[in-house]
Structure formats: structure tokens, C-alpha cells
Amino acid sequence: MPETKDIDRSGVQIGVYVCHCGTNIAGIVDVKALTDYAATLPDVTVARNYKYVCSTPGQELIKRDISELGLNRIVVAACSPCLHEKTFRNVTAEAGLNPYFFQMVNIREHDSWVHTDRQAATEKGKDLIRAAVRRVRLHKPLERKRVAINPSVLIVGGGIAGIHSALTMANAGKHVYLVERDATIGGHMAMFDKTFPTLDCAACILTPKMTAVKSHPNITLWTLSEVTQVDGYVGNYQVTVKHKPRYVIEEACVGCMECIDACVYKQAKVPDEFNMYLGKRKPIYIPFPQAVPQVVVIDPESCIEFKSGKCKKTCVEICADRNAIDFKQQDRTETIEVGTIVLATGFFTFDAKRVPYYGYGTYPNVYTGLEVERLINAAGPTSGEVILRDGRRPKTVAIVHCVGSRDENTNRYCSRVCCMYSLKLAHLIKEKTEAEVFNFYIDMRTPGKGFEEFYNRVAEEGTHFIRGRVADIYPSRGDDGRLLVCAEDTLVSTVRKIPVDMVVLATGLEPQPDAPEVCRRFHITCSTEGFFLERHPKLAPVNTFTDGVFLAGCCQGPKDIPDTVAQAGAAAAEALALIDIGYIEQEPNTAHVLEELCSGCKTCIPLCPYQAISFVESKKKAEVNEVLCKGCGTCVASCPSGSVQQNLFEDEEIFAEIEGLLAYA
Amino acid sequence: MTQTKPKIAFYWCASCGGCEEAVVDLAEEILDVVAAVDIVFWPVALDFKRRDVEQMADGSILATFLNGAIRTSEQEEMANLLRRKSKLLVAFGSCSHLGGIPGLANLFTRESILETVYFETPTTQNPNRVLPGTQSGNGNGELTLPSFSSRVRALDQVVEVDYYVPGCPPLPKIITRAVATLLGGHLPDKGSVLTPEEALCTECPRKDSKPEKIALKSFKRPQEILIDETQCLLAQGLLCMGPATRAGCEAPCIQGNMPCTGCCGAPGRVRDQGAKALSAIASLVDSRDEQEIDAVLASIPDPVGTFYRYSLPGSLLAH
Amino acid sequence: MPDVNSNLSQVAPLGAEELEPKIVAFFCTWCTYMAADLAGTSRMKYAPNARVIRVMCSGRIDPQFVLAAFANGADGVLIGGCHPGDCHYQEGNYNCLRRARLLKRVLEEVGIEADRFRLEWISAAEGDRVRVVINDMVEKLKALGPLRMKRETMLRGLHPQEHPVQEVCV
């Protein structure tokens, strides 16, 4: 921004510029009458109207008047400030005036474009200009602040989104902290068998990236870790990370896994989270064979040593040469400093128990999509065979679309990926079992590259498609152990009741259960469905309203892997753009405390979501950190003694605007 | 020849007499006051009459301390008279400063007030529905009464006021300080309130016990709880107006284990005490849901009486 | 001197322009102001009675502003903010809501009818809602009549021979 100086004039000299905007404004509003009226207002030195004030000659007009007529306040009555406030502030600054000695009046979006009565629209324009003239008189010179940006980055969540973002930024030479809550990175993608539509093996494409993360010199990988507190502001975040104990020293463990074999539990007995509780593991385990880091972890809930203190600790024995097992590990916290944050915390699957009429949890052979991924996976609990809980192999399978999605009773939105993964599961189940597969769908949503072709392929393979929402699932009469799936086949207007051996519920995607807490912790907002809110759904899908915090992947909304990776790259690009500039400029409409008036009543203190206003014990008064303050003005309105004011939105400025609007000519 | 002492006057309008008591409460210090000045008009204590004032030269009274709000035509006349005859006119006490408790009558029309008082109270027997009139006679001469205006007004809504001494009533130390200021050499800016600009919390003995966050699911009236004598009253759910009230009194009500009711008016920058008070109180409500918020606010039975107890006439509401 | 027995004197006839209600609208920048802009770009048409004051957040709205608007002659005051949960600044609109609910009770107690003070949640995409709300509010205010005249009526009897001058905030 060009350097500005206040031209020292005694007395306020206001210039008012009324824009025709071609016929956009002048067609309805009498711009000449507005100009003549503005010229009569107190302290208005000059009032002009021009065809396009935002054009170069229009801007030159203003600049010339400032230097020749000694104007020290500018009012432009034209389009919305959301469009051109910055433009005219720059003009003001270029002419040597503080850019905040400017006020914009909206006589287009709020006047000429929405009213048809010429007289009423013109009267409204007069009121608005009069209000702006009274207001701008009270404006004070304000400066924008520059704040330096720390080049380190924090990425929260080690799924494919977090991994991709991390690698992109690390390759660009930035230091990345990748913090993951579980004992391994990989996220949900590591649980998938094959990915649609190409049927790539998920682990095959994911694990090289996971390994790259571990070995990258610019990435600090922390698993079993969570962010507990975020202080600071864009460019200067202080983040507290809590490391939960693994009970294994990461640097010492080589991943030989002999401790798992040696465990006093000869049989695995603990339901295994990674396999959706369909398989079992031991208290000492590795989440899955390609886990990164390749380090075992001990679960204190099931380990005998933790429960009774009296275990033989065969694991320790066998690790005698490395001595990697350490039962004494505790929670540990540390604070890091980063400049930008990318949230890639992923999704949670819809709990199928919320739709009890589908029988999940009641009938053993009703599964969720993710459970079936594990069944099909060669490294899963059934070594890749599709074997039901009662040991049978299914001859007929129903796949129910839209479970928990597109439903007023649960989630209204479409989860975007379920049609495709239902088709994929149909294909894979058929391949493994040659069962008859029925997909019950409402619509087929296959928009991506190769998706429609995949649908055709699955159809040609002989999968049956029934267009109807499943109404009920219950056991069929007789002892054959089958379930009846009832749906109206809307294409033939008949209710079908199809007996199947296995039901697969295509459960939708939801935000993580702790999303509201995470939102607050990172000072961002959630949308009504609970996903993290992007700044603009089209033009800023990876930014949040909090500068410096970006979103990637399903935490922002349901999406598939290609879109997730694209978004992760976009988030990395946004973060890199900030880091590359090196600084950020802050708008000066922040709050400040009038110290001599503050009584220390603390009314304002808890109201700031950014903790920008704090109580200073030594002075017993409130104080605003201007860099943290976002300029909402909530503290200002709540202050019972008027001791907190907001730059550019001071009480007196707004009172002047109110009085100006309502004063009769 | 004795040097002429500065002349001062006291007058009362629509008031309870408490402000007069406050002057008397100066106790021994009143002798210092009496020694330093000449009291030329004080209906409650001295026998000077209105015509004595009318005969004084304009501006010959150094300072008149006028308490009470303006409700009748007589009060308005006296306010105008004393304004003419005084160099400095000081609004003394909440009623003349802000309108005071009588100001709450502005919630009712003059007609309804007169009807209630003269027709409807349980012990009134007025079958002929007689109302006092400004003029009446029964053949033995004429009786005049002042008229009763439709609104209660603060003093500065009727005449120009030089200074304000706030409080209901003003405390002895505030009075002494105010008198000393006015008799001393340096007069403050015209229109000043003669107490500090900050809010009461600054002087409150319980200030340190006030937590940084107060979140309430209901407000309490003083008779509903056992009030802890050491803890901030707002934190206990009581409607303490301290944060929205001017300091200077050193919080005697709080020291008496009762919440501040706002008698000293708003702190320095505020245009409407009630509005700011309600803004601060509303921010304590522990809810984000409209219906729940309403339920919490229902525990404030009389918002206007709470937030505008002393300041209704001069507020933005009663314009 | 006015006789205390007299009824309120007849209301003087109003000029035509005084029958159009005046609304002061406080819109938050991120949601409602943008919605009003959207109504403009979409060329929606609505009544010209509202005048918008832009604030950054509905949380900035001090009850004093609402009262000052009424005191200076507004017949209605409208506040527009982001939907609960979507506030650009997280929680500002909740603070606005709490204040507004308490202010509403105060206004009703002093005789300012409920329809004159309105709080609406309008998101940046809801341009049409701006149109609907303003039109609806104008209709309701027309039915209620001008507030300023009503106040002058109440004040009459104070000095029946004078019309009270519009008192402006100092």
C-alpha cells in the first residue's frame, strides 16, 4: 500500500461523488438531485456526479479534488461497498489521505435496483448520503497492521487428505507437523479393499505415500497425538499437542512383532477396531501390517499388566535386546509454533443402529459397507472370504443404498460416495462369492470420471437393480436364516420382498462426533450439518473464515478420494501462498479499550470467541489484543460503560449515521 | 464590614425529601457549609418565600441545588425562576438528574394516574368522580392548584443545568466534595456530573471475587437467596446495576449486601443507562436458544423498573 | 394552563409523506447485507421504506442504537444477522439474540408494539427473504401507524399549544 499522510487541514472538508453507473443508478435515482442536495449539507465542500466513478477518470476526479480543494473526507454514493470500498479506499490513499477517511453509500444494490418509484428511490438516496456525510465527519485515521507468518505448518489428521497435504508442503520445503489421533496414519482409506472405479487396491496406492511421510525430512509425524489447545492468530499460532502413551518406545521398536507372538494371550481375544470389530487382536498389536509408524502399541484396557500388575511380561523378555517396551509411559504435552493449520480430520460413518428397521445389531447378517470392506480384504478377519457371522457363505446379498442419507429423520444430505461404493461392493461380492446381488437404490449417483462406465459394467455383470427405498428388513419365516428385504420397486410399481442371506447397508458419511469441539478449539465454524464450514462454497472451498486455518477432505463435507486429494492440494496451495508472501495485513476495524473509563467489570471478557479481550490483573482493566481481534464489535455493544469502542464503528459514528438517516431535510 | 458570603439555595420538586435529609446528614460538616455560605432559600428548613427569590437580582445566587423531578406547572415555574436567579443551577439527586423513581410514572398516562388515585384505590370514596382542577371556587374565593403534566421530566429537560450531583440520595461525601468543587476556584466543564466517569465496579469491595465468566440459567431477586457477603452479587444471579452505574458512592449498597440499583446514573460515555445495563445483563444468559433465553429472562420480572429505575424520563425511550 | 380534566386534544392531520413508515435496518456485513446486495443483483423489487446501516456483526448492535432510531423518528427497527450457528464471528449473533429478547420486553412495556422491533436471521444466499421481510414489516407498520405521531399524541397535554420539537440525541 502506498504510504499515506494526513493532509493537515483545519475543519472537515467533504467531497461527495454520486455515480450514475451508466443507467443502473441514474435510470431510477435522480443523481443530479442527489448531487445538488449533497452540496447543501454542512461541511460538504464539493458534490459531483459522474457516469462511472470507479473508472480511471472517475478516480482521477476524486484525486484531483483532494489535492486542489483540500478535501479531507470522501463519500461515494454508488454500488455496494462489498464491491468497491477497497477501490475507493485505495484512491483516497493514493491522493495522500488516510484511506479510512472514506465512506461508501449503496444506492444501487439497495436502491436503484430494488425500487421502482423514482421519487421514493431518490429520497432514500438523500437520506443515505446525509447519513454518510454525518458519519464520515467523525472518522479517524487508521492503519493496517502487518503481521509476519511462521513458515511451519500444522496438519491435523493423517488420512489421505492430511498425507497428501503434508507431502505437498514438505516437498515445497516447509516444515510440517502431522498430528494423528490413532496409532497409525492412513485413515479410512487404509481400511478399504479396492477403490472405485478403477478397483485399485487401496493399500497399494496409499502405503507408498504413508512411507514417504515417515521418511520425509521435513515432516514431523506424531501419532497417538491430539491438539488440545490453539492460541494465537494467523501466522503465529501456539498449538499444544498431547501425546498419548504407546507404551512402546517408537525409536527403539523395529517392527519385528515378535512381542505380539510372545504375548501371554495365546489367542487374540480383543475385538479389533481396524477390522470393524469383526476380528480379534491381542492387547499388544499393530493396527494393520503396513501401519506407519511400523511400531506396535499396547492397549491398557485389555493388557494384563495394566489391569493387575502381575503379568509375566513375555513381551519385554523377547524384546530384551531392543528394550522397546515401556509400561511407565505417561501423557506428554508440548507446544509448537506454526503459521498455518490444515484440518483433515475426516469423517465418521453413520451409525446404522439409528435406523433399527434395517436390523443392524439385531440380525447378525446385516453389515455396514465398511465392515464388508474388511471381510473382502485379504488381510481382513476372514482372509478375504465373504463369510457371514454364522459361518455361512451368502448366496444372495442385498445392498441397501442411502442408509442415513437423504432422509429427513437422520441426515438430509447425500453422502456422495455410497452409490459408487455400493456398486463396487456389488462387483467384489459377486466376484468372490458368485452370489446374486440386489442393489436397492433411490437414484444412481455416478458423476465422476469412469463412474457411469463402472455402473454399466456392474449392471452387465448381472447385478440386479431395484429402484426403491428399502422400507423394512426382517427374518423370513422358516429356519433358513434369511432376511426379507422389502421395498417398492417403483419402476414396476410392485412391492418386492426379497429373501437374502446378507444385507449390506451403504451407510452415509457424517462429521466426526467431536466436530463441534474441534471447531471451537480451532476457532472455526461448523455448518448446520456439522461439517467444518468453508468460507465460500464455490470460490473458497478450502478456506475457513479464520485466516490461516484451511480444510481438506471429508471434514468439510462428504467426498471421494479424487476430490479429497484435490482439496488437500488446494489447501496446501492456499497455505503456501500465505507463507510465501511472508506477512498478512489486518483490517483496522478492531476494538480498543478506553482505559481511563474501564471499570474492570469483566462483562466483555467471556464474550470473545478469539480470546482477543482479556483482563489484565495488574491494571484491573480489560485490554484488547489487536492482532487477535477480528472486529465483530460484540464486546463493544455489551460494555455497560461504553469503555470499549470499535475502530470505524464507534458508537458516535453509528449514532451520527442513525441521526442522519432520520433527520428531516 | 463582613464580606458577603456566596449565596446558595435549595429547592425541592417532585421528590421524597430524602435529598433534603442528605444535606442534613452532613451532620457536623453542615456547620462548615453554613459558615461558608448564605442560604437564601430552603423551604424545608428556612422561612424564605417565593417572592423573596423573585425580588433577588438575576444571577445573584451563586448556586441553587434543586432536587426532585418536574411534574407540575409550579415546579416548572420554580425551576425557571431559580435558573434565572442563579449563576449555577445544580441538579441534585437522581430525580432532578435523571427523573428518578417518579420517572417511572411515565409508563402511564396522566389520565390513568389521576383515575387510579382519585377513583379506583380501594379506600377512596368519590362517587361524584371529582378530580382536582387548576381553578375552583365555592363562592368564598378562588383556589388555584398547579397543573399536573402528562410526563415527569428531569431538570435539564426544562431548564439549562450546570452540574449534576447524582445519587438517591447523594451521599454526604459526594455532597461535600461537590460543594467544595463549586466553591473552589476551578469549575469543571459545564454539564459535568460531579462524580468519577467510570462504573461502580471500579470501587466495589467485591470486585476481586467477580469471575471472568458469569453464565446464568436464572436471575434471582434478593429475597430468593441467601446472599453471600463476600462474593460478587452478579455472580450470584442478582441484578446488580453496578457495571452500568457511575462510581463515586463507594458502593454502600453492596456493602449492605444488596445489589446496586443504578441511582447515580450512567457512566461517562453512555447515552442511555437502561439500554447498556440490559445489554450487559443479557450477555450473562447461559443459552443460545430463543425459547430458553426467554425462559431465563422471565426471571427478570420488571425490566423497565430494573434497568430504568431512576433514568426513564431522560432515556432514549421516553423521548 | 391545561385543565387536568381535559381529554387528549385531537390529533392534527398528517401529511401524506408522514404515513409511509420509516424503517432503520441494521444488517451484518457477512450475511444480511450480502443478502440485500443479492436482492439487488437479482433485481428483486420491494418497498423503499428501509434504510440500511452496515455493521460487521449483529453482535455489534447496541440496544442504544435501536432506541436512538426510535427516538429520532423511526417507526420500525429491523436487525438482520447470520443464522444461529453460522455467525462469521462464531457467537456474535447469539449475543444479539439475547439482547434483543430483553430489549423486546422493555419496548413492549413502554408501549412500542412488538412488530416495530424485529430480529431476522438472513443468510447471504437469502436475497428473497430480505424482500419478503421488508415488505411484510412495512405492511405491519402501516397498520400500526406512525410511532412518532403516537408519541406526540402522548406528549400533548404537556404544552397543548406547542408541538414538542423532535428531540435529537445529544
Note down, in words, how this protein is organized.
The complex is a heterotrimer of chains A (665), B (319) and C (170). Chain A is built from 17 helices and 34 strands. With 665 residues, chain A is α/β, with parallel strands linked by helices. In chain A, helix 6 crosses helix 7 (202-215), helix 6 (160-171) runs parallel beside helix 15 and helix 12 packs parallel to helix 13 (451-460). Chain A is globular, with a radius of gyration of 32 Å. The two termini of chain A are 39 Å apart. In chain B, the strands form three sheets. Chain B has a six-stranded parallel sheet with strand order 2-1-3-5-9-10, sandwiched between helices. A two-stranded antiparallel ribbon of chain B has the order 4-8. A two-stranded antiparallel sheet of chain B has the order 6-7. The mean pLDDT of chain B is 92. Chain B contains eleven helices and ten strands. Chain B has helices at residues 18-24, 29-36, 50-54, 73-85, 94-98, 110-120, 172-183, 252-255, 273-282, 290-297, 303-307; strands at residues 7-12, 38-41, 61-67, 70-72, 86-92, 135-137, 142-144, 148-153, 163-165, 192-193. By secondary structure, chain C is α/β, with parallel strands linked by helices. The longest helix of chain C has 18 residues, at 92-109. Chain C starts with 22 loop residues before the first strand and ends in a 15-residue tail after the last helix. The chains are: A alpha/beta (665), B alpha/beta (319), C alpha/beta (170). Chains in contact: A-B, A-C, B-C. Chains A and C meet through helix 4, helix 5, helix 16 and helix 17 of A and helix 1, strand 2, helix 2 and helix 3 of C.
Quickly describe the structure:
The complex is a heterotrimer of chains A (665), B (319) and C (170). Chain B has helices at residues 18-24, 29-36, 50-54, 73-85, 94-98, 110-120, 172-183, 252-255, 273-282, 290-297, 303-307, and strands at residues 7-12, 38-41, 61-67, 70-72, 86-92, 135-137, 142-144, 148-153, 163-165, 192-193. Chain B is of the alpha/beta class and 319 residues long.
